[in-house]
Amino acid sequence: MSCVNREQLRKDLLLYAVTDRSWLGNETLYEQVEKALKGGATFIQLREKELMRNISWKKRWLSKNCVISIMFHLLSMIMSESQKIWMRMEVHVGQSDMEADDVRKILGEDKILGVSAQTVEQAVLAEKMGADYLGVGAVFSTSTKKDAADVSKETLKAICEAVNIPVIAIGGIGADNILSLQGSGICGIAVVSAIFAAKDIEAATKVLKDRTEKMLK
Predict the structure, then answer these.
(1) 36, 14 Cβ separation under 8 angstroms
(2) Domains in the chain and their CATH numbers?
(3) pLDDT, tens only, 52-108
(4) 116 labelled binding-site residue
(5) Which of 29, 83, 87, 215 has its CA 20 to 30 A from that of 71?
């Protein structure tokens, strides 16, 4: 059972930015994440396998007031490099990763555990297994994860109504379609290309945050 403050977590999950080095160009990932944070991103997920070989970026980001999320398949590498740094991170697992309750045993009760879900059944089970929040999608078609199943707004709303933990929507979300998620019950959105593929990351992040806040009202 988790002892994470879920009310605070709901606020932190407003704008969840997921990294992807596909759009780095001449920039470093550190530089891009800095821009996203300046633009108002409230949660960062580092979905980067190669970066685990260098922990200096983690030290710099973790000195800031942002939440760092990391996919479970990277966890063992982080633990072997720096236990203290890992202890200040949270973990997100997909349906094809280790079971949420097994991950919870590793994390302990004071770490944030996120789980991906596409159905009400998966969502309810994830909550029972100790998930602190759910990432539900793809709510729109997306090129970032071509194998992601579509989740209708009706299913998204049903998931939000079936669980007592925060839910964020993910998949194909951009500034032009955020408002269509209004009334679904989510507490925030997760995006990849809408931030990191933008020409002006900071400006794009500001727009996304403003529209997400409008959608939630």
Answers:
(1) no
(2) 6-216 (3.20.20.70)
(3) 445 455 545 544 444 555 544 444 444 444 444 444 457 787 877 778 888 788 778
(4) yes
(5) 215
